[in-house]
Design goal:
This protein is α/β, with parallel strands linked by helices and 402 residues long. The protein contains 14 helices and 14 strands.
């Protein structure tokens, strides 16, 4: 019961005792007993609100989480990292975004995580967080708290990430795939999802977070949603980082799109891309970047638009299968590639709707992320808050996202 009170306050904000009782379907007496215990533990506080002239009676009070609660959320990508500190309601208080090179290995990257977390905690007026959640771009053994043969993370296989961070910061740590955390973050922000949501991350690779009835679905070995390695009909045998050929990621991931754009520039198919590539190489760079594709698209470059439409079409074909199988209420598209605009989203929508049954898409929304910069860190904070605020003490108290 205490965990239900804590999660209700986290997700819905300060409430009176009668409001809490009505929301959870229990009596005011039961709520009062549990709130009293939580106040004693320092997890919640009661505040008087309103006011009136002397003799007007008791002022109303609301119950809220302790203002001292701090969670740390970390989202690590292949080339960049975000670290944030939130309060108990998962509002971001302090955050940092910066470059990250996963190829440097876990010791270097995790040391940076610890350094940034401590600095942000100090800025928020705290020393030790109540918990830290972290997402990495690869397969994760959730129970062990370690990556498993991640194709984009050389040197990380089996590294005890959760144990290392817990020891360094002295708090509970939850490690998960970055896309799963983004899915939870989007569910936290997305109204109307009904608890059934797919989050598609289009970055260097492609992944999908699956939420069914408000719960993350990881699969038996934590590989659910790994759509980047679903085979697509392409016919050229393109090699993927996982070792297979013709994976979706090898044709529509950010790295693949950039290789195609660079090749088009070298062939002279696009004068705009050729000029930008020449400029970049004169400055010492090797290939184009996603920002270049965004500028090319804005300038009306047809080759770039064709690349994005083809990538969106392939993603839509894979999503159509998921729509027929899972019938989600919302598909959220995020990641750096999604920032290229609505050409990509329009093609994803078109292909998904065209290849799915009308009944499955009747109420389906396919939208861009509502938390393009904070989805991963908010989701990370949410998952670790489930562990800290809602320990699984029984069927009714099982954390909703774990």
């Amino acid at each position: 019961m205490q965990s239900r009170v804590l999660c209700a306050l986290r997700d819905h904000g300060p409430q009176s005792r009668p409001e809490l009782g009505a929301q959870m379907g229990v009596s005011r007496t039961t709520v009062g007993v549990e709130v009293g215990r939580l106040v004693t533990l320092g997890l919640v506080r009661e505040q008087a609100i309103g006011g009136g002239p002397p003799g007007a009676g008791r002022r109303s009070t609301v119950v809220d989480l302790s203002p001292d609660i701090r969670f740390v959320g970390v989202a690590v990508g292949v080339t960049e990292m975000a670290v944030a500190v939130t309060d108990g309601h998962l509002a971001v208080l302090e955050e940092w975004h910066g470059p990250c090179e996963l190829a440097q290995g876990p010791d270097v990257v995790l040391a940076e995580v610890v350094t940034r977390a401590r600095a942000l905690l100090a800025a928020s007026g705290a020393e030790v967080p109540w918990g830290l959640g972290i997402g990495l771009p690869g397969p994760i053994d959730f129970a062990a708290g370690a990556p498993v043969a991640p194709p984009l993370m050389p040197g990380w296989d089996g590294h005890p990430v959760r144990e290392q961070l817990a020891r360094a910061l002295g708090c509970p740590v939850v490690l998960d795939n970055d896309v799963n955390l983004m899915a939870v973050g989007e569910l936290h922000a997305c109204s109307g999802a009904g608890g059934d949501l797919l989050f598609v991350k289009m970055g260097s690779g492609i992944g999908c977070g699956v939420v069914v009835a408000g719960r993350l679905h990881r699969g038996s070995n934590g590989c659910a949603g790994d759509i980047g390695h679903v085979e697509v009909v392409a016919g050229d045998g393109r090699r993927c980082a996982c070792g297979s050929t013709d994976c979706l990621e090898a044709h529509a991931g950010g790295a693949a799109l950039l290789r195609e754009a660079t090749a088009a520039a070298e062939r002279g198919d696009s004068a705009w891309l050729a000029q930008r590539l020449a400029t970049r190489r004169e400055a010492g760079a090797e290939d184009l970047e996603l920002g270049d594709l965004g500028e090319a698209l804005a300038a009306g470059d047809r080759v770039t638009a064709t690349l994005l439409r083809e990538g969106g079409r392939r993603v839509g074909h894979v999503l159509a299968g998921l729509v027929s199988f899972l019938n989600p209420a919302v598909i959220v598209v995020g990641g750096r590639v999604s920032g290229l605009g609505h050409v990509l989203l329009a093609e994803i929508r078109s292909a998904t709707y065209r290849r799915s049954l009308p009944q499955a898409t009747r109420d389906l929304r396919i939208v861009l992320s509502e938390l393009p910069e904070q989805g991963g860190v908010v989701g990370a904070a949410h998952l670790v808050s489930d562990v800290v605020l809602a320990p699984a003490t029984g069927v009714g108290d099982t954390p909703p996202h774990l």
